[in-house]
């Protein structure tokens, strides 16, 4: 299992719509998930989508114990989510800071649904069906956006909130990617 290079904003592969996974519990799928897991951990990410390592499949991983990039965030269980479907619960949206391994060194304030139901399957094809809120809901919406070719800066409403982490949070111990 390898740490793979993460594509950065500007690479056209990040703008593609990802394909559904059709075969589960295969060596190829397990290898992809393992590579994503190693890459996310190496870079202290809270999530990673397959297109970010150049694989156009509907696979995302996310999870957070304590993460120096998100020191205030609540824990999110480590999850591999394949062929996800999102269903916002209600209309309530919340603005919050986001970063992305494909947009290193930057942060921006992005609106996301506060309450979310998401469904999909794990690498064995076993169903996942959760209703979540707040940071957990935000992470899932961010990662699933990658499968649609959407990067978080495209969703920022007030571009004055978009900038370099070191300038936005001077003196704070926030990782720079
Ligand atoms: Ni991202």
Description:
This protein is of the alpha+beta class and 177 residues long. The chain has helices spanning 27-42, 134-147, 165-168; strands at 47-49, 59-64, 76-88, 93-98, 106-113, 115-121, 127-133, 163-164. It has a five-stranded antiparallel sheet with strand order 1-2-3-6-7, with helices on both faces. A three-stranded antiparallel sheet has the order 4-5-8. The longest helix is centred in the N-terminal third of the chain and has 16 residues, at 27-42. The chain is globular and about 45 Å long. The model has no long low-confidence stretch (mean pLDDT 94). The chain binds nickel (II) ion. Residues 100-102, 142, 146 line the site of nickel (II) ion (NI).
How do you describe this structure in short?
By secondary structure, the protein is of the alpha+beta class.
Give a list of the ligands: nickel (II) ion
Structural class assignment: alpha+beta
Order of helices and strands: HEEEEEEEHEH
Number of domains: 1
CATH superfamily: Peptide deformylase
Low-confidence stretches: none
Strand order of the largest sheet: 1-2-3-6-7
Helix content: 10-25%
Radius of gyration: 15 Å
The tally of strands reads 8
Tell me about the largest β-sheet: 5 strands, antiparallel
Task: Identify the notable features of this structure and list them briefly.
177 residues; three-stranded antiparallel beta sheet; 3 helices; globular; binds nickel (II) ion
